[in-house]
Specification:
Blueprint (H helix, E strand, L loop, with lengths): L1 H9 L21 E2 L9 H7 L3 H5 L3 E4 H6 L3 E2 L6 E11 L13 E13 L3 E2 L13 H15 L2 E4 L5 E3 L4 E4 L8 H15 L17 H21 L9 H13 L3 H17 L18 H10 L1
Parallel strand pairs: 1-2, 7-9
Antiparallel strand pairs: 2-5, 3-6, 4-5, 8-9
Helix pairs in contact: 1-8, 2-9, 5-6, 6-7, 7-8, 7-9
Amino acid sequence: MTDRVIAALEAGAPPWRKPWNPDVAGGAAMPVNAATGRRYRGINVLTLAMSKLAFSSEDPRWTTYKQAAARGWQIRGGERGTTVFFFKQLQIGDDRASDGSDERGKRIPVMRTFTVFHASQIDGIPAFTPPKATQPISQRIDSVETIVRNSGAVIRIGGDRAFYSPATDHIQMPPDIAFHSAEDRASILLHECGHWSGAKDRFNRDLTGRFGSALYAKEEARAEFSSLMVGGVLGLPTDIQNHASYLASWIEVLKNDKRELFHAAADAQKIADYLLAFHPDYASFNEPPDEAASDEVGETLADAA
């Protein structure tokens, strides 16, 4: 998967860029499990965002072969699936002894890959019906403002650049008139809020990277992915123009560490959950990390135990 991302970046096209139209797709078009209705999270958002299948039909639904078969749906012959990942820290034994003095037991990381198929590859699956109560774009933009207001982030207006300053813990935004649209401003504000979350008293990420450095590229990826995830939930486009130097730096980061893509996606999901919690309508929106949400996961954990 990392090799696919590198190849796309070298061609100048970040593959996770959101090509769907929230208005056409009926609002938030984050990938969901067709059998359970759960949203995919973390690395799986990027995995499925790289597939053209979801965007050719504007249907965000995916499911495993086993889930489809259990519901009488049939994967068409010759169709190729897409890999998603399930990760969980499994507790073996009790956390502490009966007297509370010593730890016992252990935590085992469990990781499984699953193959999922898009709704367009499945016969018998009900037709996709976009949500009817789609919020107008103005309300989706207001949702971003609500998140920022409730977060307590300090926003200063002026200049021609948008950035987060760790030294003063504030987000700088150009005047509204400098943006092409209100959606564009909201998207960039979400991106800067992603950086804001990395302050010492929040997630305590290293924000000292200079422009063009590997550390800078890593932080930019986290801010971009988190804005993608929050924007997907709110139904807002999140297509932020990246400087070529950032993309070049991140290509080198990925070549040196094939796991960085997964680390960045995991951090971005934490950021997205953190920001969404500042909105009363989404404070309880976050779901447990049950990516595949299938019986196969339970079987895997039982075997590991």
